[in-house]
Amino acid sequence: MNNKKKKNMLPALAMAGPVSVWMILFVTIPMLYIIYISFMSRGVFGDVVYKFSTESYKTILDPTYFKVILKSLKAAAITTILCLLLGYPLAYIIAHKPKDTAAKLITLIMIPFWTNSLMRLNSWLLLFQTSGPINNFLVGTGIVKEPITFIYTDGLVLIGLITNMLPFAVLPLYSTIEKLDKSLIEASADLGASAATTFMRVTLPITFPGIFSAIILVFIPSLGIYTVTDMLGGGKILYIGNIIKNQFGAIRNWPLGAALSVLLIVITMLLIFIYTRFAKIEDMEVV
Amino acid sequence: MNNPIISLEGVEKRFGSNLVVKKMNLEIAEGEFLTLLGPSGCGKTTTLRMIAGFEEASAGVIKVEGERIEDKEPFQRNVNTVFQNYALFPHMTVFNNVAYGLTIKKVPKPEIQERVMEMLRLVQLEGFEKRKPDELSGGQKQRVAIARALVNRPKVLLLDEPLGALDLKLRKQMQIELKRLQKKLGITFIYVTHDQEEALTMSDRIAVMHDGVLEQLDVPMEIYEHPKTKFVAGFIGESNIFDGKVTDKKDNVLTVQTEAGMMQVCGADFEVGEEMHVAIRPEYMDVSKTPVEGFDLPGTVKDFIYQGTVVKTALDIKNGQEIKYSRFEQDTDIAEGNQVYVYWRPEKAVAIKKSM
Questions:
Q1: What is the per-residue DSSP string for A81-129?
Q2: Which of A152, B20, B29, B274 has the most CB atoms lying inside 10 A of its own CB?
Q3: Does residue B30 sit in helix, strand or coil?
Q4: Which residues contact B253 (CB under 8 A, 6 or more apart)?
Q5: In B, which residues are within 8 Å of A203 by CB distance?
């Protein structure tokens, strides 16, 4: 009996083995190392001194850092909500198109995703800068008197985040909405429900797993991303991603950078935990 | 018909350049079990969907209780549908699925509780109210779908191949249950199926459709015994069909010349010289070793096919066609390769007008 079980394990081990080794080497160990470093102290020359300290975590709670964390969470949350509000109707419309049209539309959504994001962001800077074509047009036509400051503002950062993240919202939403059996919508109408009621009680609950996947896929990267905030924010506007990058780079405070990374990991894990618990939501109580 | 509950007048449905339902006229009486029967693609489901309000008729008028339905939303009609794949809401319990229509109509909660439980009792699903659809068997899902529609007390229940996904034994059992339920509740059922046996078992009347055309509308026995078109004769049960021309007419007995030979059939409004079809059921055919008067239909015995309740004998006839006749027991005096003469009582064969 025991022998047989061991035998059955072999093929599974052979298949999962290489990737497990890979994951342990390149994900688990670095993550454990990050956690380890986060409890060390910073040396005078920006090196890591291997002496236990909770200093970095205390620093996070310092109002200056804490504000940035809150601001980042807020930006990520707004990005996520707007991506959902824009992405759900878009995914819904695409899912109700004939298969070949839908495939073309999905490709259109993917195209910006395939272009280098640094190049795209740089072109944005050129377009939106004070002497750029958009401002020239606005001033030239007399719509505004003075050029508008678009770049290096929170607003442009947000638009950049949304543009970057929208495909991550649309794709999981599309795949769940597309799988939704159209006869369920007809059944709901047949039983007397209006289009709005059908959406609230049938479409939305059944596509909820897609919504939650979209939340996770948008929220987590937009919390940690630093290219968009770095470039469109001009380094003036700091988000948690920029701070982490700076701690490991210019400022050379690895323990603090590590502690901030740990914070991101904890938030991520929390979200995934909620996802596994609540991704299947129940219908309301009727009686 | 006085006060039909549903009437279709010249109803047509076009999808692009495709006319899938053609000039359909149909009246359905209150409390009737009417079946739309036909092969896939004949327009039966489209007809049902137009009555349900999911599709709009391209031409013609559909009335429910004398009122045009075009102006009403699906939920304003006293009509509910049982879908082919059940279409149960996967995230709701059995109870909530059945209660759905009532909660939408804001029926008071105690009444919902009472009506849902009563309905679950009726379809023998007591104790299942807390289950989710994916915890049910096909037959149980089917019952939930029926309960979910009936709990709204519709005047008309539309059923789109509701038993299609069930295995043969369960399907037979559900056929009888559905028919009993319909009789008990007195609700009009409009039932779509491609299974002719199912249609014959359950229906008060059958509307046979083919290529978007209503071929024949009649009680099951008439459909079976007196098919009016060549398609109906071939589609319902088994028939041997011959194309021929009337050569003689005596007291409604027509003598018909076909490529296979000469035969007789009863038919009133046919002229000598008219082209027509003759259909004969395998069970009404006889064979003789010597020619029979009025018939000249020789054939060679090809083989015997044992089918449990009957034995079918396949014959090759003159025009290369293969025809079959059936007996309860195998004929002992003929063997494979024998030459026999086929005949029948002219009133047992059906004379069918050649379609335009």
A1: HHHHHHHHHHHHHHHTS-HHHHHHHHHHHHHHHHS-HHHHHHHHHHHHS
A2: B20
A3: coil
A4: B264, B265, B266, B294, B346
A5: none
- Cα gap A61→A57, rounded to integer Å: 7
- How much is the pLDDT for B255? 93
| Exposure b/e, B285-295, CB count within 10 A at least 16 = b | bebeeeeeebb
Identify the band that residue B53 occupies on the pLDDT scale cut at 50, 70 and 90: confident
Cα–Cα distance between B75 and B328 in angstroms, integer? Answer: 52
- The model's confidence at residue A281, banded by pLDDT at 50, 70 and 90, is low
- What pLDDT does B334 receive? 83
- Could you please state the CATH topology (level 3) that the domain comprising B239-353 is classified under: OB fold (Dihydrolipoamide Acetyltransferase, E2P) (2.40.50)
The reply to whether domains B6-231 and B239-353 share a CATH topology is no
Rounded to a whole number, what is the distance in Å from the CA of A204 to chain B's nearest CA? 11
For an interface test with B, give the residue of A180, A182, A284, A287 to mutate (most B CBs within 10 A): A287
A191 and B83 in contact by Cβ < 8 A?
Answer: no
Which of chain B's residues have a Cβ under 8 Å away from the Cβ of A199? none
Domains of chain A in sequence order: 63-278 (1.10.3720.10)
Q: Predicted confidence band at A1 (pLDDT cuts at 50, 70, 90)?
A: very low
Closest Cβ–Cβ partner in A184, A280, A282 for B87: A184
Q: What is the pLDDT of residue B344?
A: 94
Residue of A nearest to B96 (CA): A286
According to CATH, the superfamily of the domain at B6-231 is P-loop containing nucleotide triphosphate hydrolases (3.40.50.300)
Is residue A202 within 8 angstroms of chain B, CB to CB?
yes
The residue ranges of every structural domain in chain B are 6-231, 239-353
Instruction: Nearest by CB to A189, from B74, B84, B92: name it.
Output: B74
